[in-house]
Amino acid sequence: MAILTDQECKDTVEAYTAAKFSKQEAAKLLGVGETTIRRRLREAERRGIRIDNSLAGTQMFQRVQQLTATIKELEDHNNKLRKEIITAESVKQLIHGCNVVFEPPAWLTKKATANTRGVPTFFASDWHWDEKVEPAQLNYVNAFNRDISIARAKRFINVGVELVTQHMTKAKYDYCVFAIGGDMLSGNIHEELRETNQYPIHITLLSVADMLISAITKLHDTFGRVYVPVVVGNHGRLSRKPVYKNRAFENYDWLLAQIVARHFKGEKGVEFDITEGSEIFYSIYGTKYFLQHGDDFIGGGGISGPFTPWMLGDLRKRRRQDAIKQSYDVLIMGHWHQYTPLRRLIVNGSLKGFDEYSKHKGFDFEPPIQAVWVTHPENGITVHWPIFLEEPGKLFRSE
After folding, report:
1. Final residue in a domain of this structure, among 58, 84, 110
2. Are 206 and 250 in contact (CB under 8 A)?
3. Are 232 and 293 within 8 A, CB to CB?
4. What is the pLDDT of residue 96?
5. Residues 49-73: tens digit of each pLDDT
6. Which residue range forms the structural domain that includes residue 380?
7. I need a labelling partner for 165 at 20 to 30 A (CA). Which of 57, 125, 304, 383 fits?
8. CA 288 to chain centre
9. d(Cα 209, Cα 95) in Å, to the nearest integer?
C-alpha cells in the first residue's frame, strides 16, 4: 500500500468538505473508491489534518463550485437544444409540411382499370444543369449550356408525351411516373466545374426547379396523376468525397426535390416520394422497381465496358434485397450516361450528352437521351422509347 503524502490527505479533506461531508460524493470528485476516502480521512485525522468548515473557501472548493455551475449551465443548454433540434422530419415539415413517411395514395396501389395501356415512366436523370460543354473541344458534335438545357428538357417531355398519347392505339393510362435519378445540376465537386459552371449553384438550383415544375405540370395536365420518386446523385453532394451517412440530406438534389415538392403541396394527383437514403423501392401493378443513381457501381474497363459492373452490382443488390424480402424485378439508374434498356436493368442517358471527359476517356459517343417506357399490368414493360434530344448529325458552333 502506497504511503500517503500530507498533500493527498489535505486534498481528501477538502474534497470531503466540498462534497458536503459525503464520502460517496468525495470519492467521485477524486476518482477513487469510497473505501479509499475512509482510509485517507482516518490518516488525515491521525496526522492532525482536521475537517474544518473554513475549508469551504479553499481553492479546491471554489473549483468544484465553478465546475458544478458550468455543468448546470451545459445541462440547461443541452435541454434547450434538444427541444429545438431540427431533425430530417422537421426540416421537411418546415419546407412544405409533407408527410414524414411517404404514404402512397389509393391510386398508386389499386388494380388496373379496364382497357388501360398501363403506366408510362419518364426517367429524368443526369441533367447537369448549368454545366458548360464547349463545342470546339468536341469537334462541334455537342455543346451544352443553360439555353440548350431548357430546349432539351422541353423536348424530352413534349416528345415523350406525344409518343405515349399519339403513337399508342386507344391510349389510356391510370397515371404516370416521373422518376428523378439524381445529378440534376452540375454541382461543385470538382474544381474545374466550379470554374466553368455557367452560374453559381443557388441560381442553378432555382432554374432547374422551374423546369422540373413545368415538366411535372405538363404530365399532370396530360395524365391526371403523377408519382415522383426521387433519389440523389453524386454531383449534387456538398462534400468533395462521397459520404454515406446523411447522403440524401447533404446533397443539392434532395433540396431541389423539396423545393419542387413544396410547389405542388396540396395539388391533388401529384405525389412525391423523396428518399432519405440512396435508393427507392416502388411497384407499378405487379412490376417491382428499384431506383438508385448508380455511382456505387465501379469499373467498366475492358471489352465488356460497363456491363461487368452493372451485372455484378445488380446481382449483389438482388441478393441483399432477397435476404430482407424486398426483391425487385427491374433496377433503374442513371450516372453512366449510356442509355441501355435491358429486361431487368434500365440505364438512362443524360441531358448533357457527350462531353470533354467522355472524349478524353475514350468513351463511345452518346447523344443526349432520356428514357421513357410503359409498364403494363399483366405483361410488365411492353415498350421502350429513347427520347433523342437533338437532331441526328447536328453540328454545334461556338457562340
Report:
1. 84
2. no
3. yes
4. 47
5. 876 554 444 555 566 666 666 666 7
6. 90-388
7. 125
8. 21
9. 15
Collapsing DSSP to helix, strand or coil, 289 comes out as strand
Q: Tell me whether residue 41 is in a domain.
A: yes
Task: Indicate whether 192 and 259 sit together in one domain.
Answer: yes
Residue of 382, 371, 303, 367 lying closest to 340 (CA atoms) = 371
Over residues 190-241, the pLDDT tens digits come to 666 666 787 888 889 999 999 999 999 999 999 999 999 999 999 888 877 7
**Assigned C-alpha cell, 22:** 459525503
How far apart, in whole angstroms, are the C-alpha atoms of residue 322 and residue 160? 34
**Chain Cα centroid distance, residue 231:** 6
Query: Quick check: 352 and 337 in contact, CB under 8 A?
Result: yes
Q: Considering 53, 84, 115, which residue would you say is the last residue of a domain?
A: 84
- 59 part of a folded domain: yes
Note whether 96 and 194 are same-domain residues.
yes
What residues are paired with 375 via a beta bridge?
Answer: 119, 381
Cα–Cα–Cα angle for 60, 66, 69, rounded to 5 degrees: 140
Residue in 178, 181, 182 with CA at minimum distance from that of residue 120: 178
Q: Which of 193, 179, 273, 206 is nearest to 240 (CA)?
A: 193
For residues 22 and 168, membership in a common domain is answered with no
| Number of domains making up the chain | 2
* Same domain flag for 211 and 349: yes
Closest listed residue to residue 229, CA positions, set 303, 122, 133: 122
Give yes or no: residues 291 and 203 share one domain: yes
More confident residue, 64 or 110: 110
